[in-house]
Design goal:
With 70 residues, this protein is mostly beta strands. The protein is built from one helix and four strands; from the N terminus they run ββαββ. It has one domain. β1 and β2 form a beta hairpin.
C-alpha cells in the first residue's frame, strides 16, 4: 500500500469573515499581499495558526498588529 500525503485546505478568518485560500501554492506572505487588494489592513497584520478544524481545514486567523505613530 502506497503512502499518500495530502495537505489540508487553508481558510483565513478576518473580522468574522471566512476567506477561502486564493491559491494553495502561495506562501502566507503571498496570500497576505493577494488579500490586501480587498482588505488593505491585512498588510499590517499577522496570521495566527493554523488550528485544525473538524472538517480537516487549517484555519488561520488574521490578527492586527498594534503600532505606534509618530
Amino acid at each position: 500500500m502506497a503512502l499518500e500525503i495530502a495537505s489540508a485546505k487553508r481558510v483565513f478568518e478576518h473580522n468574522s469573515i471566512t476567506i477561502t485560500d486564493p491559491n494553495p501554492n502561495l506562501s502566507l506572505d503571498e496570500v497576505k499581499k493577494h488579500l490586501s487588494g480587498l482588505y488593505p489592513e491585512i498588510l499590517n497584520s499577522k496570521f495566527e495558526g493554523p488550528t485544525m478544524q473538524e472538517d480537516g481545514t487549517a484555519l488561520y486567523k488574521v490578527k492586527s498588529e498594534a503600532g505606534t505613530f509618530g
